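Project outcomes to date are best conveyed with an example. Our students and postdoctoral researchers have been running inverse folding experiments weekly, and each run begins with a structure described purely in tokens. The record below, which covers 313 residues, was selected by the lab manager from last quarter's runs and is presented without edits.
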């Protein structure tokens, strides 16, 4: 999703934008006797907002030294298991990793709900949906494939995705629903946002993978395309998926040793729970108002003391 804000600590990036956690480790992770915490930061701005506020409060209210590491979703689980990071603040659902590390290895523990429900879907700009109401049903998408072609999609309609590292069933959906579309990856949240904004500026039609919560809906109104109804287990086989994405209560996860020995920091992170609106407020400050994550966190913290006071142990 967006490139990591400069104020966050960066590790060398691989080709797909993830830190190579097989060779890198924070010097602060699992440091015995030290009041330090290492938080994993995914690349999208909503997740950066969680970490920014948690980091600010850990440092200013609880006296911790916080280190942050940018890492993609699946590698973050391995890093968490090994104690290279202490906590993952926003997971969108990785049942295989959860079974491996939480249930089987018991090196990771659940940290509770973030308080935000995530939903991935396919969206068209509302101005296009209002002009062509039937485009919001997947069964009619092939009718509009010609209008949604781009240079990158060739003779097919374009379905714009972000990074290949994100949770996505889109290639399987296009194939299994027999759609005349090609999935085109922008490469990151930032690149995808740039393309969406450009399409919107020119009032061009587009079809995109997108997700809630996300601040961009405030700037570019989009309408979801109805996919076949999601039912439990319909996405169990990645090759055979032919249903919509679920609505996922976003979860926090902690390294098991950190959860036991992390004291006030571990208790605080378990207590951290806010709303979609709060996350979007901070994300908007970072992405659109160009505040640093620390500045955005400070602004939110000063305006919302009753909320965060309840998180302190």
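After processing, the design step wrote out the following sequence:
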């Amino acid at each position: 999703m967006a490139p990591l804000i400069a104020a966050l600590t960066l590790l060398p990036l691989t080709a797909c934008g993830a830190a190579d956690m097989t060779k890198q480790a924070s010097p602060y992770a699992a440091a015995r006797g030290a009041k330090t915490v290492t938080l994993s930061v995914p690349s999208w701005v909503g997740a950066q907002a969680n970490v920014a506020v948690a980091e600010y409060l850990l440092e200013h209210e609880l006296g911790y030294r916080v280190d942050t590491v940018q890492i993609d979703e699946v590698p973050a689980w391995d890093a968490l298991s090994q104690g290279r990071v202490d906590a993952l603040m926003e997971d969108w659902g990785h049942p295989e990793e959860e079974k491996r590390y939480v249930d089987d290895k018991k090196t990771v523990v659940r940290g509770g709900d973030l308080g935000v429900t995530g939903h991935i879907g396919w969206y068209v700009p509302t101005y296009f949906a209002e002009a062509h109401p039937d485009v919001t049903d997947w069964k009619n998408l092939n009718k509009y494939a010609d209008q949604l072609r781009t240079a990158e999609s060739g003779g097919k309609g374009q379905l714009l995705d972000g990074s290949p590292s994100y949770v996505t069933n889109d290639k399987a959906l296009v194939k299994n629903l027999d759609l005349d579309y090609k999935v085109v990856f922008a490469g990151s949240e930032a690149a995808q946002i740039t393309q969406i904004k450009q399409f919107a500026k020119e009032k061009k039609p587009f079809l995109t993978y997108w997700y809630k919560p996300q601040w961009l809906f405030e700037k570019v109104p989009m309408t979801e395309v109805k996919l076949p109804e999601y039912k439990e287990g319909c996405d169990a086989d990645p090759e055979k998926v032919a249903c919509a994405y679920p609505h996922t209560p976003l979860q926090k996860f902690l390294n098991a040793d950190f959860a036991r020995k992390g004291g006030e920091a571990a208790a605080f992170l378990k207590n951290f729970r806010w709303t979609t609106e709060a996350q979007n407020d901070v994300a908007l400050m970072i992405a659109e108002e160009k505040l640093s994550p620390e500045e955005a966190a400070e602004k939110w913290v000063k305006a919302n003391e009753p909320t965060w006071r309840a998180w302190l142990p």
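Confidence is low (pLDDT under 50) at residues 1-32. Strands lie at 36-41, 65-70, 87-91, 108-125, 157-161, 181-185, 207-212, 222-225, 247-255. The training component of this project remains on track.
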